[in-house]
Amino acid sequence: MSRDTRLSGVLHVLLHMAEHQGPVTSEVLARAMQTNAVVIRRTMAGLRKRGYVRSEKGHGGGWSLACDLNTVTLADVYEALDRPPLFAISNRSEAPQCLVEQAVNAALDRALHEAQELLLASFQGVTLAALSADFHRRLERHPSKRIGIDHV
């Protein structure tokens, strides 16, 4: 079963961008994330629409942050990604008339809804600034005390 890593990936990109002076091209971000530049552009479009990033075309252009890290939460970024699925668990739907399947699905729906609400509430309590602060604490303990957008 495949996992959706868009939220983790875009948070990674945003924190790298916060550390970088000036715009960063989709190609550079794609190399850092080991993906295609088209994927980066598609993912960043939702963030741009919400005003979290901006893009500049032409020589010296690229993506840059357009928000205050203290005001943007994980929940905000999750919303900007159009709320990707949080869980891989899903209901069976092969026999919707089956009363057993209905009972199982009702119980799973209830539990998954409660878990999702709890997770989203937790996302509301974590800002990009908090992630950045954690990164800086880790960087202080890192032997080289430097990590660039290319992870070197």
UniProtKB/TrEMBL annotation:
Gene3D superfamilies: Winged helix-like DNA-binding domain superfamily/Winged helix DNA-binding domain (1.10.10.10). SUPFAM superfamilies: Winged helix' DNA-binding domain. GO terms for molecular function: DNA-binding transcription factor activity. Pfam families: Rrf2. It comes from the Bacteria. One of its GO terms (cellular component) is cytosol. InterPro entries: Tscrpt_reg_Rrf2, WH-like_DNA-bd_sf, WH_DNA-bd_sf. Transmembrane segments: none annotated. Signal peptide: none annotated. This is Transcriptional regulator.
